[in-house]
């Protein structure tokens, strides 16, 4: 029997049992769709987190006051001392290190903003002009602090704050009150939306010295440091740590985090999670393969007489085997193709429901889903095909 005849014969057999074939294909389709949708969800979450972290900045080292590791007792505690604050002077010393390109001290708090007869509570960020290139933030209008006016009472408004207080778009140059202090609006940020837990459109940015006065503190919330070259991050991290230990009388009381290391850790965790959910989905394909095997075994029992007739007219055992294998391939391949379409549709619906989540299925998942489904079908069809090929023609015909 020619290959084309064999495929045609097996295809006619498949469509002659529509209910049975439909159920097998549905099982295969659901397995493939699950692989594609779950990997799209996992990989989308990974890309979302990576994009959010990348938006913070690149070549970034973050310095936090206090220790995040357990390192024995704090010697100053017996003298009634507490760990030192991270101060603006510390930041200036860090900024002098050769590995540091620029740095931005941060203070964050909440205060009441009043202007144009309106009043509301806003999140304020005290920092310097270098925060914009470090955090990839952009100004739609105006400017922020220059090196010659670090202490001037300037303010940059988030786009939504500017729209709420000055709907006519005439915010630049206006005087506003933040807490008990007056500032002049010198810039408006580009609309950027929410990132890493806060909405920059509802943020006001003022000089860090004014923020510390408003918040009644001398300690920084964070110090963001941009390193000149990516390969210098580890050297810079250690240099910053040693500099601050010397300034704090030998106390290692700050935490220095390499942004790229945190990002790489998140990426590894979420990639492993994606592979894990893909593995769970593949199990459903294995179950579908067992269903194919079960149905094909029943089919061999039901078609004993047909197999005996084929053998009686001289059909070789190998051809009988190929017929049953071809049926299994037809069922699994058709189910895989339907599952691929269902998976892509499900991923599209996910992106539609959650526009911020880039739920695109990875290319490897598309191919792996179809390949595993076909492989499961072929393996599941082997045993029934071999059993059919071994049937004795006389014994098979006698069962009619």
From TrEMBL:
It is a multi-pass membrane protein. Coiled coil: none annotated. This is Macrolide export ATP-bindingpermease protein. Residues 21-242 form the MacB-like periplasmic core domain. Pfam families: FtsX, MacB_PCD. The keyword rRNA-binding does not apply. Keywords: ATP-binding, Cell membrane, Membrane, Nucleotide-binding, Transmembrane, Transmembrane helix. It comes from Nitrosomonas stercoris. The chain crosses the membrane at residues 21-41, 273-298, 319-343, 363-383. One of its GO terms (molecular function) is ATP binding. Residues 280-393 form the ABC3 transporter permease C-terminal domain. It is found in: Cell membrane. Its main location: membrane. The keyword tRNA processing does not apply. One of its GO terms (cellular component) is plasma membrane. InterPro entries: ABC3_permease_C (IPR003838), MacB_PCD (IPR025857), Macrolide_Exporter_MacB (IPR050250). Belongs to the ABC-4 integral membrane protein family.
């Amino acid at each position: 029997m020619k290959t084309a005849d064999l495929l045609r014969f097996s295809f006619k057999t498949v469509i002659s049992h529509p209910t049975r074939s439909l159920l097998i294909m549905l099982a295969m389709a659901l397995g493939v769709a699950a692989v594609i949708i779950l990997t799209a969800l996992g990989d989308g979450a990974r890309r979302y987190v990576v994009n959010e972290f990348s938006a913070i900045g690149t070549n970034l080292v973050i310095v936090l006051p206090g220790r995040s590791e357990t390192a024995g007792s704090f010697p100053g505690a017996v003298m009634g001392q507490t760990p030192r604050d991270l101060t603006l002077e510390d930041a200036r010393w860090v900024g002098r290190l050769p590995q540091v390109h620029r740095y931005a001290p941060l203070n964050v708090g909440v205060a009441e903003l009043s202007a144009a007869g309106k009043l509301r509570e806003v999140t304020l960020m005290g920092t310097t002009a270098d925060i914009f290139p470090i955090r990839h933030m952009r100004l739609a209008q105006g400017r922020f602090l220059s090196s010659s006016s670090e202490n001037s009472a300037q303010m940059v408004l988030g786009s939504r704050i500017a729209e709420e207080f000055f709907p006519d778009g005439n915010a630049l140059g206006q005087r506003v009150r933040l807490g008990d202090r007056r500032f002049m609006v010198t810039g408006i940020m580009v609309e950027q939306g929410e990132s890493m837990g806060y909405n920059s459109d509802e943020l006001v940015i003022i000089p860090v010295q004014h923020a510390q006065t408003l918040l009644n503190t001398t300690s920084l919330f964070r110090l963001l440091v941009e390193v000149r070259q990516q390969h210098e991050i580890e050297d810079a991290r250690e240099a910053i740590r040693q500099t601050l230990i010397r300034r704090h009388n030998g106390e290692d009381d700050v935490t220095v985090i390499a942004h790229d290391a945190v990002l790489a850790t998140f990426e590894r965790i979420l990639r492993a999670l994606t592979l894990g959910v893909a593995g769970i989905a593949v199990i459903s394909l294995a179950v579908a393969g067992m269903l194919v095997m079960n149905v094909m075994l029943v089919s061999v029992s039901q078609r004993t007489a047909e197999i005996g007739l084929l053998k009686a007219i001289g059909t070789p055992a190998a051809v009988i085997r190929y017929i049953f294998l071809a049926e299994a391939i037809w069922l699994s391949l058709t189910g895989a193709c339907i599952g691929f379409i269902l998976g892509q549709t499900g991923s599209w619906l996910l992106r539609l429901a959650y526009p911020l989540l880039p739920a695109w299925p990875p290319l490897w998942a598309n191919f792996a889903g179809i390949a595993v489904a076909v492989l499961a079908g072929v393996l599941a069809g082997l045993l029934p095909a071999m059993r059919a090929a071994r049937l004795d023609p006389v014994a098979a015909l006698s069962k009619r």
